[in-house]
Amino acid sequence: MAADGDVAGEDRASPGRPYHDMARLVERLHRRFLDVIRIELARLNVEDISPVQALMMMTIGTEELSVRDLIQRGYYLGSNASYNLKHLVEAGYVDRAQSQRDRRAARLRLSPRGQELCLELRRVETAHIDGLVRSDGDAQEVEATYRTLRRLERTWTDVIRYDALDFD
Fold first, then answer.
1. Are 46 and 116 in contact (CB under 8 A)?
2. Is 16 exposed, middle or buried (0-12, 13-18, 19+ CB in 10 A)?
3. Is 19 left (phi over 0), alpha (psi -120 to 50) or beta?
């Protein structure tokens, strides 16, 4: 019988083991990241937005984006993104205006209030990075981890789009 969490037929030393655990780890990391943002919002006395809404603002950043671009960049679901954007506009963090070229499309940018909050969150993010990366070796490990996760994302995207694997 496989140990708790083990994939049937694989032991902990199997080279396939990390692959099997990676999706679950990424999901847990995302939830932890949202918890960290929730804590930082509380420290900043920001109680009118959620961590997901804060991430949406960070995705907008200093740019002016269409709603479609925001959804694609952040991999948000349409109805959920619409709800969150409406809340951010009503709370005064995001300005929404009609596109000059296409009146059906909306353009988004951070309001001064949203810019200020994002600046504070970036400062906190920098402190977290400084705690994680203390040497050149740490920086190389973080970069290697990032490259591996991007490669995994491309592989899974190819499986979804083309129902094929291409490891070149």
1. no
2. exposed
3. alpha
What angle in degrees, to the nearest 10, is found between the helix axes of 51-60 and 17-43?
A: 90
Per-residue CA distances from 141 to 136, 144, 146 (Å) = 9, 5, 9
Report pLDDT digits (tens) over 1-49. Answer: 444 455 555 566 676 788 889 889 999 999 999 999 999 999 999 999 9
For the chain, what percentages of helix, strand and coil (3-state, to nearest 5) are there? 65, 5, 30
Amino acid type, 160:
I
With 0-12 CB in 10 A as exposed, 13-18 as middle and 19+ as buried, what is 84? buried
Q: What is the pTM assigned to this prediction?
A: 0.80
Q: Are strands 94-98 and 106-110 parallel, antiparallel or unpaired?
A: antiparallel
Distance, C-alpha 88 to centroid of its chain = 17
Please state, in angstroms and as integers, the Cα–Cα distance from residue 158 to each residue in 11, 29, 35, 155, following that order: 28, 23, 31, 5
